[in-house]
Design brief:
Blueprint (H helix, E strand, L loop, with lengths): L17 H8 L6 E4 L6 H8 L3 E6 L2 H9 L5 E5 L5 H6 L8 E5 L4 H5 L24 H7 L2 H12 L4 H14 L5 H11 L12 H11 L2 H15 L11 E6 L2 H12 L4 E3 L5 E2 L2 H6 L7 E7 L18
Parallel strand pairs: 1-2, 1-4, 2-3, 4-5
Antiparallel strand pairs: 5-8, 6-8, 7-8
The protein binds S-adenosylmethionine.
Length: about 325
């Protein structure tokens, strides 16, 4: 491991929807909860404060280093991808838990640490890997065909100028490989019709797309949901089992969570619509603005004919 974040002081991560997550997972002494996205341990601290034991999983070795340094009593830390949660848990002899939390995406630690290459504002190596293994964003933009790059920008960034931007990227890399965040941002800006996107930085959607692709975020989410379900406690005599709480930040993720929860006969959703942050929270934590929390509980198999309990309105 070569990179240590320079200054830990600005690296604060405010957990989103804190009250809603506590209400969903009902931490208490004697309960065991998995935080599949430990990050800055913001949610984990809240769960621990209420007496639960927490197993914190993260694929980012730097996040784990920081979390271990906190020495939080009741927290056990595991390195890995939450898509393999069941295997990771069974490696420490745990087969069943009372709750699982997934707070998808990157943390402010990762975004604010320029060297990780997630931000188009600061010059850094074009990396974007949370786990520090596998293909980096630089590998992707310098080796894939224009067609494949366009598909990534379109599918994961909903970038409508994907083909044009991909052609711009390939033309630029033919001159010189694209190795830094700022060069990629500049290439995208130059290729963008009129040089700007309405209301947002022209590189924003493309950076999001590359990050999702590099970390296979949607694949991990799909597998992580199934892995979580496989470790949640079955219903007690009163009919209540383990709970799964998932926070997502854009419609691609929320759609996956919503559709998956809808099709699991073992799960009952707790709310008809996803929970969102209050105006107050949105004002104090910009990251909370796009957060959506969906919660479901393991219950005895539902009567399919009685309906799923979900609103049928599609997530945009
Ligand atoms: C949004 S942050 C979580 C913040 C945390 N809830 C808090 O309050 O501090 C997401 C974290 O999950 C990690 N992560 C994202 N996808 C993951 C995956 N598939 N497996 C394991 N960790 C993942 C990231 O490395 C990051 O540290």
């Amino acid at each position: 491991m070569t990179h240590i974040p320079a200054d830990p002081a600005p690296l604060m991560h405010l957990p989103v929807l804190p009250a809603e997550v506590l209400d969903a997972l009902q931490p208490a002494p004697g309960k065991l909860i998995v935080d599949g996205t430990l990050g800055g341990a913001g949610h984990t601290r809240l769960l621990l404060e209420r007496g639960a034991h927490v197993i914190g999983i993260d694929q980012d070795p730097f996040a784990l280093e920081r979390a271990r340094a906190l020495n939080l009593p009741g927290l056990r830390v595991l390195e890995g991808n939450f898509r393999e949660m069941n295997t990771l848990l069974s490696s420490i002899g745990v087969t069943q838990v009372d709750g699982v939390l997934l707070d998808i995406g990157v943390s402010s630690f990762q975004l604010d640490d320029a060297q990780r290459g997630f931000s188009y504002h600061t010059e850094a190596p074009l990396d974007m890997r949370m786990s520090q293994s596998g293909e980096s964003a630089a590998d992707v933009v310098n080796t894939l065909s224009a067609e494949d790059i366009a598909s990534i920008l379109y599918e994961f960034g909903e970038e409508r100028h994907s083909r044009r931007l991909a052609r711009g990227i390939v033309a630029a890399r033919d001159q010189e490989p694209i190795l830094t965040t700022t060069r990629l941002a500049e290439v995208i800006k130059r290729s963008y019709p009129g040089g700007h996107a309405r209301g947002i930085h022209p590189a924003r959607r493309s950076f999001q797309a590359l990050r999702i692709y590099v970390n296979d975020e949607l694949g991990a989410l799909r597998e992580g949901l199934n892995a979580a379900l496989s470790v949640l406690a079955p219903p007690s005599l009163e009919g209540h089992g383990g709970r799964l709480a998932v926070i997502s930040f854009h419609s691609l993720e929320d759609r996956i969570v919503k559709r998956w929860m809808k099709t699991q006969p073992a799960l009952t959703p707790l709310h008809k619509r996803p929970l969102e942050a209050s105006d107050e929270e949105q004002a104090s934590n910009p990251r909370a603005r796009s957060a959506k929390l969906r919660v479901a509980e393991v219950r005895p198999p539902r009567d399919i004919a009685s309906g799923s309990g979900w609103d049928d309105e599609e997530t945009p």
